[in-house]
Amino acid sequence: MPGALVLLTGPPGSGKTALCARLVAAARQRGHDVAGVLSPVRFDAGGRTGIDVLDLRSGETRPLAWRHDPARPATLTVGPWSFDAAVLARGDAALARATPCWLLVVDELGPLELAQGRGWTAGLAALDSGDYRLALAVVRPGLLAVARARWPRAAPADARDPGAAGRLIGLLAAASAPGPGGR
Predict the structure, then answer these.
(1) CATH code of the domain occupying 4-176
(2) Which stretches in the chain have pLDDT values below 50?
(3) How is the chain split into domains, by residue range?
């Protein structure tokens, strides 16, 4: 039986990655195997300047994307972001090795994955596998319908909802309880 899957959504700056990080910490505190990637945003005084990728198993962090800069050409661009294709491939490789695990995090699935078939494609496969006790997939609001069509069993959660964190911590606690299908 596949594990529980939550599609965490919300606009930029709504706390999706921070909420994932809280759940990662709570799962680790309980001694669970955590895998996948987090994509925290880098800020400076002028606002969002870049995106990193954190491999949750190895702890390795690398700069993944930056705001378009004509002085720094990129081979892959989406919206205002230019991506380092080699770092994107490393993150995808981490996702290919992520399952089986207790908690799987894929932060985030956007147009690269859900519209173009690029980016964290191994994350899509890991989520499809169900080989986890609990999974969090961060999905942009504009792509939530696409994600729900792919994973109809998934429960949506909005990071802007003040009760979302408590419900997700409760789901994590319930998934930690002994029972069939544990990892």
Answers:
(1) 3.40.50.300
(2) 180-183
(3) 4-176
